[in-house]
Amino acid sequence: MSSHVAHRPGSRWSLAPFAAAVAAAALIGGLGVAGTAEEYQSLKQPAWAPPSWLFGPVWTILYAMIAVAGWLVWRRTGWTPALTAYAIQLVLNALWTPIFFGFGRYGLALVDIVVLWVAIGVTVLLFRPVSRLAAGLLLPYWAWVTFATALNAAIWLAN
């Protein structure tokens, strides 16, 4: 693709739209969903469930890695099906918190997170030929969502 040179800006400021998109997903996911820590603690949980305070730091690191991964791919290719998959997984990520905490629909949240897990996998596969680093940056996210899927399923079954 000859136009890919146009997508290699000399400034790191081009990372800003990716950081903004990831921040928007995080904020949309939390809009109107107050008291998630309290609700989480009130649920019947498996013994291996992490404490609620752990989610903020983990997601902060993961969201930074997600933003950099998208930016690395965009710099090399511009907007391609790989970034469409990336956008889809961000939307699914944003939807999970309102479904789980806002509506208390643990089964529907489980469907969302399973589809999210698949979308992350597709994104990793599409990113890998473009940037192994970008694909690698998504692996901790995919691992965390794997864990979160198991936690969501356990909570849904227990509650």
Tell me the layout of helices and strands:
Elements: H1 16-30, H2 36-42, H3 55-77, H4 81-102, H5 106-127, H6 132-158
Helix pairs in contact: 1-3, 1-4, 3-6, 4-5, 5-6
- Low-confidence region ranges: 1-6
Compute the separation of the termini in Å: 51 Å
Shape: elongated
Secondary-structure element pattern, one letter each? HHHHHH
Helical content stands at: over 70%
Number of domains: 1
Counted by DSSP, the helix tally is 6
Cα-atom radius of gyration = 17 Å
Number of strands: 0
What is the strand content?
under 5%
Overall structural class, as computed from helix and strand content, comes to mainly alpha
Summarize the structure.
The protein is built from 6 helices and no strands. It has helices at residues 16-30, 36-42, 55-77, 81-102, 106-127, 132-158.
Describe this protein's structure.
- The protein is an all-alpha fold and 159 residues long.
- It has one domain (14-27, 51-158).
- Helices cover 73% and strands 0% of the residues.
- It contains 6 helices and no strands.
- Helix 1 (16-30) runs antiparallel to helix 3 and helix 5 runs antiparallel to helix 6 (132-158).
- The N and C termini lie far apart (51 Å).
